[in-house]
Amino acid sequence: MGRLTPPRPISSTRGLDVTAAADHRKRRQRPSQVTGRTSPHKGRRPADRSRTHRDPDDKPVSRLGDGPGVPVDWSRSTLAHLRSVYPFHTAAGFGERGVLLGSDVTGGFRGFYFDPFEFYQQRHLTNPNMIVMGSVGFGKSATVKALIRRLQAVYGTGRYLAIIDPKGEYSTVATDLGLAVIKLFPGKGGARVNPMDPGSTSNDDSVIARQTLAAQLVAGVLGRELTPLEDAVLSWGIETRCRANQAFTLADLHREILDPPDELVRLSRHTPLELARATSPVTFALDKLCSRTLRGMFDGPTTVHVDWDNGPGVVLDLSAVYANSEALPLVMVAATHWLNGALRGRPERRSVQVIDEAWAAVRHGAAYLQGSLKLSRTYGVATVLVCHRPSDLTAQADDGTASSKIAAGLLSDIQTRVLLRQPPEQIAAAVEMFDLSERERDWLGQLVQGRAIWKIGARTACVQTVLTAGDRKLFDTDSAMSSSGLGAGLGERVG
């Protein structure tokens, strides 16, 4: 039997005859003899091939190899160098604490995880509040719904969900998650909540919060700020009721100051007639809050029972008044206060409060909302404001200076900013409001559906939210415009 000879390695010159090996070396050393061209690097050592030359436009270029090749920008770098030039691709990320929302497209498409309370504990944030902003149809609502659905899936009742739903868009999600739904509508037979409820605390903060709320509601009805005397009378009525440790409603407050008692007259340093005339706008505003378009919603004791301690959460459906541009902001402020008051005082559990169409709450309740955000960390409440564009926050005041102050005040207490695509006319305002870089500015006008810039503290990521088939079925808000529903043709991306 003959001897078996092993095959020769294809990529090696070992085993070749001497002549073939010599020819191979010649071809490597003298490419000009093979091509018939004169090498510009003739006589140079191989180590000199990396030298940079200049093209006719005086632009530094390099040629690959010794042949003519294609001029390209020369760069000799390691991953350590590249990390300093473009850190997004090599950043450590935010870790895997929280719930999986999608993929970080600026970090090698690694999974992106988020939970406001986990991030606060990890010192990524100094407060747990969020704002989600994006044009219609680019996945704003789907991003928020995916977040709350996955928070419940991971943490269960450890994340209490409280949602202000002006358009009735969260009903399917509420049914899926087992959330209690309270539908408020004017007239008899509907649910009623009392914004003057003390909530779970009866301390000085609760008194001040109710005074601020009442002032904001009355000012919203009047369309102007209260005079010092009007504000003082309203605050006196609330403090008097609180001091007596009595439960009261807006209707009770109206009766308290409609016929001013002697104590109030004496403190005001007015005659009874002068005081009644000066404060009559307040009494008229309180009467309106308890009648007409708002009748049956806030004019009496709370008629609903909610399991704040063990239940998964609650949704306040305000769709019955959504079309009423005058009533909706007032209802939003009153409902938000009632809900926020009930969430306080339960530090053993964390609450996520979503305020959709936040522009309406800002319109008449900017001061109250700002104060509420400042206390969120104290009470374990993460507030998520959802709106369309920067002008939703800035256009609610009478002048530009006041608008800027309102927006700046709110954003100072919000460290998680989620920005989906914006129309061209809003990009400049977004850049100024959120202090965006030039690269982030370019992204903002080109983001695809479901992709958002996440600014978390001092760090930034571009995240593609990923939906499951169950998510897409629950989150469909565009069925009237598409026979196939949300996300058709988008695979697992957000719709």
Instruction: Report the CATH C-level class of one domain.
Output: Alpha Beta
As a percent range, the share of strand residues is 5-15%
Give me the Rg, rounded: 32 Å
The CATH superfamily name of one domain is P-loop containing nucleotide triphosphate hydrolases
Which CATH-level-2 architecture of one domain?
3-Layer(aba) Sandwich
| Alpha-beta classification | alpha/beta
CATH level-3 fold name of one domain: Rossmann fold
**Major sheet, described briefly?**
11 strands, mixed
Number of helical stretches of at least 4 residues: 19
User: Residue-averaged pLDDT, rounded?
Assistant: 78
Shape: globular
Low-confidence stretches: 1-22, 28-53, 59-67, 82-91, 479-495
Question: Cα distance, first to last residue?
Answer: 71 Å
What's the total count of β strands?
13
Strand order of the largest sheet: 4-3-13-12-11-5-10-9-6-8-7
Oligomer: single chain
Proportion in helices: 40-55%
